[in-house]
Amino acid sequence: MRPELAEAARVLEEGGLVAFPTDTVWGVLVRPDAPEAVARVYRMKGREREKPLQLLVAELEVAEHLLPEGFRDPRFWALAERYWPGPLTLVVPAGRAFPAIGAERTLGLRLPDHPELRALLRAVGGLVAATSLNKSGTPPVRSEEEARRFPVDLVVPGPPPPGRASSVVDLVRGRVIRAEAIPEAELRRFLEAR
């Protein structure tokens, strides 16, 4: 693990905010069980508290551990097999609550296609809460220079991300919330195959 990632793990463990160029857009990472740090993310973005942060997971097994006992929706595994690791967030019933991120009944889970990010996730227990690095309602930042203008505790340098947010499928309500990196028609085929 390169020194910047070790430093990012330390900052996250201490309840700090880390800006990271993910496999989709520049993101801000935070521990989901650190209420003060999560509140900083909401203030920094001007984000409505009703909009939960997503959880990035290092492995499929971590995501499965967060599902309710007895969760049987075959669409979850079909979508995960096809698009994970990758730019797809799956909204599922919460088997474990993270009140700090605003998701008590559902969780938005994503397994990123970014080896260094996944190494960082493993170093902090397998998951972090995340959202795009921007002011709500504005495009995500596009460069490290822009990222450094935000009041985060660490900016991890790296290649610029592709710049397209993850697509989001809500398996609780059976709908596509956002079709960005993956076309909606493609995702709908999975929803209709139940």
Describe this structure in words.
With 194 residues, the chain is of the alpha/beta class. The protein has one domain (3-192): DHBP synthase (Alpha-Beta Complex), CATH 3.90.870. The protein has helices at residues 3-13, 35-45, 60-66, 74-83, 115-123, 144-147, 184-192; strands at residues 18-21, 26-30, 54-57, 88-93, 106-110, 127-132, 154-155, 167-170, 175-178. Strands 7-1-2-6-3-5-4-8-9 form a nine-stranded mixed sheet, with helices on both faces. α1 packs across α5. The longest helix has 11 residues, at 3-13. The model has no long low-confidence stretch (mean pLDDT 95).
Task: Give a topology summary.
Blueprint: H1 3-13, E1 18-21, E2 26-30, H2 35-45, E3 54-57, H3 60-66, H4 74-83, E4 88-93, E5 106-110, H5 115-123, E6 127-132, H6 144-147, E7 154-155, E8 167-170, E9 175-178, H7 184-192
